[in-house]
Amino acid sequence: MKTTIDKLCQDHTLNAEEYRSLLLCQDTEANAYLQQKAQQTTLARFGNAVFIRGLIEISNRCRNNCLYCGIRKSNTMVSRYSLSRETILSCCREGYALGFRTFVLQGGEDVSQTDDWVTETVACIRQEFPDCAITLSLGEKSKEAYLRFFKAGANRYLLRHETFNEAHYATLHPSDMSREYRLQCLEWLKEIGYQTGTGIMVGSPGQKIEHLVEDLLFIEHFRPEMIGIGPFIPHVDTPFANEPSGSIDLTLKLISIFRLMHPSALIPSTTALASLSPNGREQGILAGANVVMPNLSPSSVRKKYSLYNHKAAFGSEAAEGLKLLEEQLNQIGYIVSRERGDYNYV
Ligand code: SAM
Fold this sequence. Notes:
The protein is of the alpha/beta class and about 350 residues long. Helix content is about 45%, strand content about 10%. It has a 6-stranded parallel β-sheet. A 3-stranded parallel β-sheet has the order 8-1-9, covered by helices on one side. Helix 2 packs across helix 9 (about 210-220). S-adenosylmethionine (SAM) binds near residues 68, 230 and 232.
Protein backbone atom coordinates (compact mmCIF):
# COMPACT_ATOMS: atom_id res chain seq x y z
CA MET A 1 0.00 0.00 0.00
CA LYS A 2 2.96 2.29 0.70
CA THR A 3 3.85 2.13 -3.02
CA THR A 4 0.32 3.22 -3.97
CA ILE A 5 0.46 6.13 -1.51
CA ASP A 6 3.87 7.18 -2.84
CA LYS A 7 2.47 7.01 -6.36
CA LEU A 8 -0.48 9.24 -5.43
CA CYS A 9 1.90 11.63 -3.69
CA GLN A 10 4.14 11.85 -6.73
CA ASP A 11 1.73 11.60 -9.68
CA HIS A 12 -1.45 12.98 -8.00
CA THR A 13 -3.50 10.29 -9.71
CA LEU A 14 -4.45 6.64 -9.24
CA ASN A 15 -6.68 4.29 -11.17
CA ALA A 16 -10.05 3.12 -9.87
CA GLU A 17 -8.72 -0.15 -8.49
CA GLU A 18 -5.90 1.62 -6.62
CA TYR A 19 -8.32 4.15 -5.10
CA ARG A 20 -10.59 1.30 -4.09
CA SER A 21 -7.86 -0.63 -2.31
CA LEU A 22 -6.63 2.53 -0.58
CA LEU A 23 -10.15 3.24 0.70
CA LEU A 24 -10.56 -0.35 1.88
CA CYS A 25 -7.12 -0.57 3.49
CA GLN A 26 -7.40 -1.22 7.23
CA ASP A 27 -3.68 -1.41 7.89
CA THR A 28 -2.96 1.10 10.67
CA GLU A 29 0.60 1.74 9.55
CA ALA A 30 -0.41 2.38 5.93
CA ASN A 31 -3.21 4.73 6.99
CA ALA A 32 -0.82 6.64 9.27
CA TYR A 33 1.63 6.89 6.36
CA LEU A 34 -1.12 8.31 4.12
CA GLN A 35 -1.97 10.92 6.75
CA GLN A 36 1.70 11.79 7.28
CA LYS A 37 2.24 12.31 3.54
CA ALA A 38 -0.92 14.49 3.30
CA GLN A 39 0.21 16.57 6.28
CA GLN A 40 3.68 17.06 4.80
CA THR A 41 2.16 18.09 1.47
CA THR A 42 -0.10 20.67 3.15
CA LEU A 43 2.78 22.07 5.20
CA ALA A 44 4.98 22.32 2.10
CA ARG A 45 2.28 24.29 0.19
CA PHE A 46 0.71 26.40 2.92
CA GLY A 47 3.06 26.26 5.90
CA ASN A 48 1.27 25.84 9.23
CA ALA A 49 -1.26 28.61 8.47
CA VAL A 50 -4.95 27.76 8.35
CA PHE A 51 -7.29 30.06 6.41
CA ILE A 52 -10.49 31.23 8.11
CA ARG A 53 -13.83 31.97 6.43
CA GLY A 54 -16.76 33.64 8.16
CA LEU A 55 -19.87 31.56 7.48
CA ILE A 56 -23.13 33.52 7.31
CA GLU A 57 -26.19 31.28 7.05
CA ILE A 58 -28.45 33.68 5.21
CA SER A 59 -31.65 31.61 5.02
CA ASN A 60 -33.03 28.26 6.12
CA ARG A 61 -35.93 28.41 3.67
CA CYS A 62 -35.52 25.94 0.84
CA ARG A 63 -37.59 24.94 -2.18
CA ASN A 64 -35.79 21.57 -2.28
CA ASN A 65 -36.54 18.37 -0.46
CA CYS A 66 -33.16 16.60 -0.22
CA LEU A 67 -33.84 13.55 1.92
CA TYR A 68 -30.81 14.05 4.20
CA CYS A 69 -31.18 17.74 4.98
CA GLY A 70 -32.77 19.19 8.10
CA ILE A 71 -33.96 22.35 6.32
CA ARG A 72 -35.72 20.43 3.51
CA LYS A 73 -38.99 21.94 2.35
CA SER A 74 -41.19 19.27 3.95
CA ASN A 75 -39.76 19.67 7.44
CA THR A 76 -42.54 21.54 9.23
CA MET A 77 -40.64 21.51 12.53
CA VAL A 78 -38.22 24.21 11.35
CA SER A 79 -38.73 27.80 12.37
CA ARG A 80 -37.88 29.53 9.10
CA TYR A 81 -35.90 32.76 8.68
CA SER A 82 -34.26 34.82 5.93
CA LEU A 83 -31.66 37.40 6.90
CA SER A 84 -32.09 40.92 5.61
CA ARG A 85 -29.34 42.55 3.60
CA GLU A 86 -28.62 44.92 6.48
CA THR A 87 -28.22 41.99 8.91
CA ILE A 88 -25.84 40.26 6.49
CA LEU A 89 -23.80 43.44 6.18
CA SER A 90 -23.61 43.81 9.94
CA CYS A 91 -22.36 40.17 10.17
CA CYS A 92 -19.67 41.10 7.64
CA ARG A 93 -18.72 44.17 9.70
CA GLU A 94 -18.43 42.08 12.82
CA GLY A 95 -16.38 39.48 10.94
CA TYR A 96 -14.12 42.09 9.39
CA ALA A 97 -13.31 43.52 12.82
CA LEU A 98 -12.40 40.00 14.00
CA GLY A 99 -10.02 39.60 11.09
CA PHE A 100 -12.09 37.65 8.55
CA ARG A 101 -11.29 38.44 4.91
CA THR A 102 -13.65 35.90 3.34
CA PHE A 103 -17.40 35.88 3.85
CA VAL A 104 -19.33 32.77 2.88
CA LEU A 105 -23.04 33.35 2.26
CA GLN A 106 -24.72 29.98 2.54
CA GLY A 107 -28.40 29.15 2.49
CA GLY A 108 -31.23 27.02 1.29
CA GLU A 109 -32.70 27.80 -2.13
CA ASP A 110 -34.92 30.56 -0.80
CA VAL A 111 -37.22 31.88 -3.54
CA SER A 112 -37.74 35.13 -1.63
CA GLN A 113 -34.02 35.88 -2.01
CA THR A 114 -34.33 36.46 -5.75
CA ASP A 115 -31.41 36.71 -8.20
CA ASP A 116 -31.84 40.50 -8.15
CA TRP A 117 -31.67 40.52 -4.36
CA VAL A 118 -28.56 38.29 -4.24
CA THR A 119 -26.86 40.40 -6.92
CA GLU A 120 -27.53 43.61 -5.01
CA THR A 121 -26.43 42.04 -1.72
CA VAL A 122 -23.14 40.88 -3.25
CA ALA A 123 -22.64 44.35 -4.75
CA CYS A 124 -23.14 46.00 -1.34
CA ILE A 125 -20.62 43.67 0.33
CA ARG A 126 -18.16 44.19 -2.52
CA GLN A 127 -18.47 47.96 -2.18
CA GLU A 128 -18.01 48.02 1.58
CA PHE A 129 -15.30 45.34 1.74
CA PRO A 130 -13.21 45.68 -1.43
CA ASP A 131 -10.35 43.66 0.07
CA CYS A 132 -12.47 40.63 0.99
CA ALA A 133 -13.41 37.50 -0.91
CA ILE A 134 -17.11 36.72 -1.27
CA THR A 135 -18.06 33.06 -1.44
CA LEU A 136 -21.59 31.98 -2.28
CA SER A 137 -23.19 28.64 -1.46
CA LEU A 138 -26.79 29.10 -2.51
CA GLY A 139 -27.40 25.98 -4.55
CA GLU A 140 -28.55 25.55 -8.12
CA LYS A 141 -29.22 28.69 -10.19
CA SER A 142 -29.30 29.59 -13.87
CA LYS A 143 -26.07 30.36 -15.71
CA GLU A 144 -27.23 33.97 -16.06
CA ALA A 145 -27.68 34.25 -12.31
CA TYR A 146 -24.20 32.85 -11.60
CA LEU A 147 -22.81 35.35 -14.08
CA ARG A 148 -24.64 38.28 -12.50
CA PHE A 149 -23.41 37.34 -9.00
CA PHE A 150 -19.87 37.07 -10.34
CA LYS A 151 -20.03 40.44 -12.06
CA ALA A 152 -21.39 41.97 -8.86
CA GLY A 153 -18.24 40.81 -7.06
CA ALA A 154 -18.59 37.19 -5.92
CA ASN A 155 -15.33 35.27 -6.24
CA ARG A 156 -16.03 31.72 -5.14
CA TYR A 157 -18.95 29.28 -5.19
CA LEU A 158 -19.44 26.10 -3.18
CA LEU A 159 -21.76 23.47 -4.62
CA ARG A 160 -21.19 19.90 -3.51
CA HIS A 161 -22.14 17.32 -6.11
CA GLU A 162 -23.02 15.09 -3.08
CA THR A 163 -22.47 11.85 -5.03
CA PHE A 164 -21.38 11.26 -8.62
CA ASN A 165 -23.28 8.00 -8.99
CA GLU A 166 -26.59 8.63 -10.72
CA ALA A 167 -28.59 5.87 -8.99
CA HIS A 168 -27.20 6.86 -5.60
CA TYR A 169 -27.98 10.54 -6.31
CA ALA A 170 -31.58 9.54 -7.03
CA THR A 171 -31.92 7.85 -3.62
CA LEU A 172 -30.76 11.01 -1.80
CA HIS A 173 -32.86 13.50 -3.73
CA PRO A 174 -36.46 13.84 -4.93
CA SER A 175 -37.17 13.17 -8.60
CA ASP A 176 -37.39 16.87 -9.47
CA MET A 177 -33.66 17.24 -8.79
CA SER A 178 -31.08 15.88 -11.18
CA ARG A 179 -27.43 15.02 -10.96
CA GLU A 180 -27.04 16.30 -14.53
CA TYR A 181 -28.18 19.80 -13.65
CA ARG A 182 -25.92 19.91 -10.60
CA LEU A 183 -22.90 18.89 -12.69
CA GLN A 184 -23.94 21.42 -15.34
CA CYS A 185 -23.97 24.14 -12.65
CA LEU A 186 -20.45 23.17 -11.64
CA GLU A 187 -19.27 23.44 -15.26
CA TRP A 188 -20.84 26.90 -15.57
CA LEU A 189 -19.29 28.10 -12.34
CA LYS A 190 -15.82 27.10 -13.51
CA GLU A 191 -16.38 28.55 -16.96
CA ILE A 192 -17.50 31.90 -15.50
CA GLY A 193 -14.31 32.09 -13.46
CA TYR A 194 -15.39 31.31 -9.92
CA GLN A 195 -13.00 29.48 -7.62
CA THR A 196 -15.31 26.50 -7.51
CA GLY A 197 -15.84 24.06 -4.68
CA THR A 198 -17.50 20.71 -4.79
CA GLY A 199 -17.58 17.67 -2.54
CA ILE A 200 -19.54 14.95 -0.84
CA MET A 201 -21.02 13.70 2.37
CA VAL A 202 -19.17 10.64 3.60
CA GLY A 203 -21.42 7.77 4.66
CA SER A 204 -24.64 9.11 3.18
CA PRO A 205 -27.30 6.38 3.19
CA GLY A 206 -26.66 3.76 0.51
CA GLN A 207 -23.13 4.97 -0.24
CA LYS A 208 -20.78 2.19 -1.34
CA ILE A 209 -17.01 2.17 -1.77
CA GLU A 210 -17.60 2.07 -5.55
CA HIS A 211 -19.51 5.37 -5.28
CA LEU A 212 -16.60 6.97 -3.43
CA VAL A 213 -14.23 5.76 -6.15
CA GLU A 214 -16.47 7.50 -8.71
CA ASP A 215 -16.36 10.67 -6.58
CA LEU A 216 -12.57 10.49 -6.43
CA LEU A 217 -12.29 10.08 -10.20
CA PHE A 218 -14.77 12.90 -10.81
CA ILE A 219 -12.93 15.32 -8.52
CA GLU A 220 -9.58 14.31 -9.98
CA HIS A 221 -10.92 15.15 -13.42
CA PHE A 222 -12.89 18.31 -12.48
CA ARG A 223 -10.06 19.80 -10.42
CA PRO A 224 -12.15 22.07 -8.17
CA GLU A 225 -10.27 24.80 -6.33
CA MET A 226 -12.08 23.81 -3.10
CA ILE A 227 -13.06 20.36 -1.88
CA GLY A 228 -15.65 19.98 0.91
CA ILE A 229 -15.73 16.59 2.60
CA GLY A 230 -17.84 16.01 5.69
CA PRO A 231 -19.52 13.04 7.32
CA PHE A 232 -23.27 12.56 6.82
CA ILE A 233 -25.06 13.12 10.14
CA PRO A 234 -28.76 12.21 10.47
CA HIS A 235 -31.37 14.82 11.28
CA VAL A 236 -34.25 13.70 13.45
CA ASP A 237 -36.97 15.26 11.23
CA THR A 238 -35.87 13.76 7.91
CA PRO A 239 -36.54 10.39 6.23
CA PHE A 240 -32.94 9.44 7.16
CA ALA A 241 -33.47 10.05 10.89
CA ASN A 242 -32.49 6.51 11.84
CA GLU A 243 -29.51 6.13 9.52
CA PRO A 244 -26.04 5.96 11.09
CA SER A 245 -23.56 8.85 10.83
CA GLY A 246 -20.68 8.64 8.41
CA SER A 247 -17.30 7.45 9.66
CA ILE A 248 -14.82 10.02 10.98
CA ASP A 249 -11.89 7.82 9.98
CA LEU A 250 -13.11 7.45 6.40
CA THR A 251 -13.73 11.22 6.20
CA LEU A 252 -10.17 11.88 7.39
CA LYS A 253 -8.79 9.34 4.95
CA LEU A 254 -10.61 11.02 2.06
CA ILE A 255 -9.25 14.44 3.11
CA SER A 256 -5.73 12.96 2.97
CA ILE A 257 -6.33 11.36 -0.43
CA PHE A 258 -7.71 14.62 -1.85
CA ARG A 259 -4.74 16.54 -0.47
CA LEU A 260 -2.32 14.21 -2.27
CA MET A 261 -4.45 14.22 -5.43
CA HIS A 262 -4.70 18.02 -5.47
CA PRO A 263 -1.98 19.63 -3.32
CA SER A 264 -3.08 23.26 -3.90
CA ALA A 265 -6.77 22.71 -3.13
CA LEU A 266 -8.47 24.62 -0.36
CA ILE A 267 -9.90 21.89 1.84
CA PRO A 268 -12.01 22.78 4.89
CA SER A 269 -12.02 20.85 8.08
CA THR A 270 -15.82 20.84 8.14
CA THR A 271 -18.35 21.72 10.80
CA ALA A 272 -19.88 18.24 10.38
CA LEU A 273 -16.53 16.72 11.39
CA ALA A 274 -16.34 19.05 14.40
CA SER A 275 -19.93 18.18 15.29
CA LEU A 276 -19.21 14.45 15.44
CA SER A 277 -16.03 14.63 17.49
CA PRO A 278 -14.82 17.20 20.07
CA ASN A 279 -11.44 17.43 18.33
CA GLY A 280 -12.82 16.85 14.82
CA ARG A 281 -11.58 20.23 13.55
CA GLU A 282 -8.02 19.48 14.62
CA GLN A 283 -8.17 15.96 13.23
CA GLY A 284 -9.23 17.36 9.86
CA ILE A 285 -6.29 19.78 9.84
CA LEU A 286 -3.87 17.00 10.75
CA ALA A 287 -5.28 14.91 7.89
CA GLY A 288 -4.48 17.63 5.34
CA ALA A 289 -7.26 20.25 5.51
CA ASN A 290 -6.20 23.92 5.53
CA VAL A 291 -9.41 25.92 5.97
CA VAL A 292 -11.90 26.40 8.81
CA MET A 293 -15.24 28.18 8.55
CA PRO A 294 -16.34 29.59 11.91
CA ASN A 295 -19.97 30.58 12.19
CA LEU A 296 -20.60 34.29 11.75
CA SER A 297 -24.42 34.11 11.60
CA PRO A 298 -26.39 36.07 14.21
CA SER A 299 -26.48 33.76 17.25
CA SER A 300 -30.31 33.98 17.30
CA VAL A 301 -30.57 32.01 14.03
CA ARG A 302 -27.74 29.50 14.44
CA LYS A 303 -29.90 26.79 15.97
CA LYS A 304 -32.47 27.27 13.20
CA TYR A 305 -29.94 26.44 10.48
CA SER A 306 -30.08 22.85 11.59
CA LEU A 307 -28.86 20.62 8.75
CA TYR A 308 -28.23 17.66 11.07
CA ASN A 309 -28.45 16.75 14.76
CA HIS A 310 -26.15 18.53 17.25
CA LYS A 311 -24.55 20.86 14.71
CA ALA A 312 -21.66 22.73 16.31
CA ALA A 313 -22.09 26.51 16.02
CA PHE A 314 -20.75 27.94 19.27
CA GLY A 315 -17.42 27.97 21.14
CA SER A 316 -14.50 27.52 18.76
CA GLU A 317 -17.01 26.88 15.93
CA ALA A 318 -18.16 30.47 16.23
CA ALA A 319 -16.51 33.56 14.81
CA GLU A 320 -16.54 35.18 18.26
CA GLY A 321 -14.71 32.09 19.55
CA LEU A 322 -11.76 32.73 17.24
CA LYS A 323 -9.34 33.01 20.18
CA LEU A 324 -10.34 29.54 21.34
CA LEU A 325 -9.92 28.18 17.82
CA GLU A 326 -6.48 29.81 17.62
CA GLU A 327 -5.49 28.15 20.91
CA GLN A 328 -6.72 24.77 19.70
CA LEU A 329 -4.81 25.10 16.44
CA ASN A 330 -1.68 26.34 18.26
CA GLN A 331 -1.77 23.21 20.38
CA ILE A 332 -1.35 21.05 17.29
CA GLY A 333 1.31 23.34 15.80
CA TYR A 334 -0.82 25.48 13.47
CA ILE A 335 -1.74 29.18 13.37
CA VAL A 336 -4.71 31.13 12.01
CA SER A 337 -4.05 33.11 8.83
CA ARG A 338 -6.01 36.34 8.41
CA GLU A 339 -5.21 36.53 4.70
CA ARG A 340 -7.91 36.20 2.05
CA GLY A 341 -6.58 32.80 1.13
CA ASP A 342 -7.43 32.61 -2.57
CA TYR A 343 -6.58 29.57 -4.64
CA ASN A 344 -3.06 29.87 -5.98
CA TYR A 345 -3.15 29.10 -9.72
CA VAL A 346 0.64 29.12 -10.24
N1 SAM B 1 -28.48 24.94 -0.73
C1 SAM B 1 -27.07 24.96 -0.95
C2 SAM B 1 -26.62 23.70 -1.67
O1 SAM B 1 -27.44 22.85 -1.95
O2 SAM B 1 -25.45 23.61 -1.98
C3 SAM B 1 -26.26 25.17 0.31
C4 SAM B 1 -26.83 24.71 1.59
S1 SAM B 1 -26.74 22.96 1.81
C5 SAM B 1 -27.64 22.78 3.30
C6 SAM B 1 -25.02 22.75 2.25
C7 SAM B 1 -24.50 21.35 2.40
O3 SAM B 1 -24.94 20.79 3.63
C8 SAM B 1 -24.94 20.35 1.39
O4 SAM B 1 -24.16 20.42 0.23
C9 SAM B 1 -24.77 19.01 2.11
O5 SAM B 1 -23.61 18.32 1.70
C10 SAM B 1 -24.66 19.43 3.59
N2 SAM B 1 -25.64 18.68 4.41
C11 SAM B 1 -26.97 18.76 4.34
N3 SAM B 1 -27.54 17.87 5.17
C12 SAM B 1 -26.53 17.21 5.78
C13 SAM B 1 -26.47 16.14 6.73
N4 SAM B 1 -27.57 15.59 7.20
N5 SAM B 1 -25.25 15.71 7.13
C14 SAM B 1 -24.14 16.29 6.65
N6 SAM B 1 -24.12 17.28 5.75
C15 SAM B 1 -25.31 17.74 5.30
